[in-house]
Amino acid sequence: MKKLIYGACAAMMIMAASCSKGGDAKESLVPDQLSDSISMCFGSTIGGYVLNDFQRFDSTMQNDQTKKGIMKGIQLAFSNADDEAVIMGLQVGGQMLQQIKSFEQMGVKVDRNKVIANFRKVFMADTLDMDALREYSTMMNSLVQEAEQIKAKKEAELAAEAPEAKQNEAAGKEFIAKLKGSDPEVKTSASGLSYKIIEAGEPVEIKDNSMVKVNYTGKLIDGTVFDQSPEGQPATFSPRGVVSGFGEGLKMLGKGGKAVLYIPADLAYGVKGVPQAGIGPNATLIFEVEVVDVNN
Predict the structure, then answer these.
(1) Which one of 23, 37, 45, 271 has the fewest beta carbons within 10 angstroms of its own beta carbon?
(2) CA pair distance 110, 130, nearest whole angstrom
(3) Is 62 helix (H, G, I), strand (E, B) or coil?
(4) For the segment 99-126, what is each residue's pLDDT rounded down to a tens digit?
(5) What is the rounded CA–CA span in Å between residue 289 and residue 255?
């Protein structure tokens, strides 16, 4: 809704600005018939924009009650048209409510009475304590970050309990266990990355910020290819710019090095996976890697 509403508001501001250049806005400079036509057309135009956006609302919001609420807000603004302070308050209040809703989507239970009480306490003071304001701002950022981390952790815990995530995790562990049992060249690092070095390559140290040209093919444990570099066109990236398991594997090689990396989910895309690429939750990944060049 924001883009269309902002577009409508911008149109209204332009119209208001162009109209104000002619002199006192209360002075009748044009025939009443033209004024009436502008009034009707203006209302119809904005009404159409808002209705067009209204029809994109979630289906649960597309009802007469929502329409009546929108009309109530518009009429409230119109009834206080001569009180710029009230209009300003409506705008600030609307912006605060939007932020509150984003907090609530994070799982924060916002007490609106406490919000208003603390807003009033600071806003109605005779002076502004800039040091205190900076502290509030810093504290706010820290608190929101904490809330986001808690939300992400809980979402990850719930996702990890999903049947598909559990199945993928078990299948990955079983796959690597069988692989190591049949191929002694497959090793596992302290982080949990399993790998097989085919060629170590030149003794050129690859660092986190190195730019590395790589030919690679990414597969699922069932052999499905989900990504690969185009033939004859190595991809260029740094170890810190890819999933941690891939980055760790790259740093074991030098120019000309080749390896197969068996990356468990916690070193790849975790419980979220990458659905658009066909990577499910807690999927173990296989990367066949060849280092073409290294630039430190």
Answers:
(1) 23
(2) 25
(3) coil
(4) 999 999 888 899 999 999 999 999 998 9
(5) 11
Residue 272's SS3 state is coil
Provide CB contacts within 8 A for 163, sequence distance 6+: none
- 0.70 cut: is pTM over it? no
Q: How many C-alpha atoms does 201 have within 13 Å on its Cβ side?
A: 22
Q: What is the pLDDT of residues 183-210, one digit of tens each?
A: 999 999 999 999 999 999 988 789 999 9
Reported as type and span, the H/E element at residue 167 is helix 163-182
Record the tokens describing residue 33, joined without a space.
């018939």
Residue type, 40: M
Are the C-beta atoms of 179 and 288 separated by less than 8 Å? no
Distance (Å, whole) CA 171 – CA 151: 28
With cut-offs at 50, 70 and 90, classify the pLDDT of residue 6. very low
Please report, as a single letter, which amino acid is at residue 171.
Answer: A
- CA angle, 103 as apex, 100 and 108 as ends, to 5°? 115
Q: Strands, E, within 52-113: which ranges?
A: none
**Rounded distance, CA 244 to CA 225, Å?**
20
